[in-house]
Amino acid sequence: MEKTHILVVEDDDDARMMYTIMLTSWGYEITEASLGGDGIKKARQRKPDLILLDVMMPDMDGYQVCQELRSDPQFHTVPIIFLTALDATDDRIKGYTLGGDDFLTKGQTDYKELGARIEAALQRTHRIQPSAVKSEKRGTIVGLLSLRGGVGVTTVALNLARQAAIQGAQHVIVVDLAFPVGSVGLWSGITGPRHSVELLSRQAAEIMLPLVENFSVQNVHGFHIIPGPATLTDLGRIRLESVERLLNVLREAGYFVILDLGRATLPLLWQTPAQCDWVAVVTSAEATARMLASVALNTLPKYGVNQQALLLIFNDATGRKPTDISLGLPRSPDVFIPYTKNIEQLPEPSPMAQFWTMVSEPAPEVP
Fold it and tell me: Is residue 51 within 8 Å of 80, Cβ to Cβ?
């Protein structure tokens, strides 16, 4: 059986030798690099199964090495464990943000813990690989949008994901397509180079499930998020065929996918709702929001959206309850979500549970 190959990137000769001797005694095959640039070169010459990476090096620091490797699709799922004398919280956050899988402090990590961390990182990678096999059950894609900003599309998307997790749904993911700056990531405090624009700028052929999962971050409530960019980003890099490929990959893998489409006013998103199983237009009490919801409901079928799977969600985003929630709308909302700061405070029967029940069923077939 081929040995697991570990690349050790460490500029301190004594430390590098110690890691090599220790890891070799545990049965790993080791390649050494004394500088960051040399580490990148050797990683590309022979792809390792895991990388132990020092942070403080003279030519380029470990953060730069990590960022460079993560920009290459073949290294998206290779575990990277930082080894450093730095112990500040900000240093750790930076390491994780740039794509590191673990962060060990030199002098404070027992050799047994190092071995356990390495094995855990390798096992996580092994668990990802089988998931690339198609699921027997096709997934569902739910798109949420509003032509009016400020009505709570992101809140509804995140609460629907949380409800799906509460109901025990497997593989729930929220994909932030609310460009130009994503709302899901900002609300969740997720920033960094792994965001939806970066993912969708890849060639469609590169969009495989391990890559998609590497761009996702697990939420405390059990579902996953692919955040949008935290700053203004060049959207011209997005490939429309990669958007379609992403949705197909997640659907074939059995994911319950929630797309935060925001205002969905960019041309690159106009065709996306037609690829969804369900599309929910979110509105609120504000007059303009109602008017634009009517526009969306009347227009989306012309862009290929199944009218039988087109829902209207009234989100009481401000607590300003109208006398008639249907006023100015072409039909009564399918779900009314009263104002609350916490999904657990919603009245019973929960409107989010009602929403989940609707979209967890197969969408009606196009007449």
Answer: yes
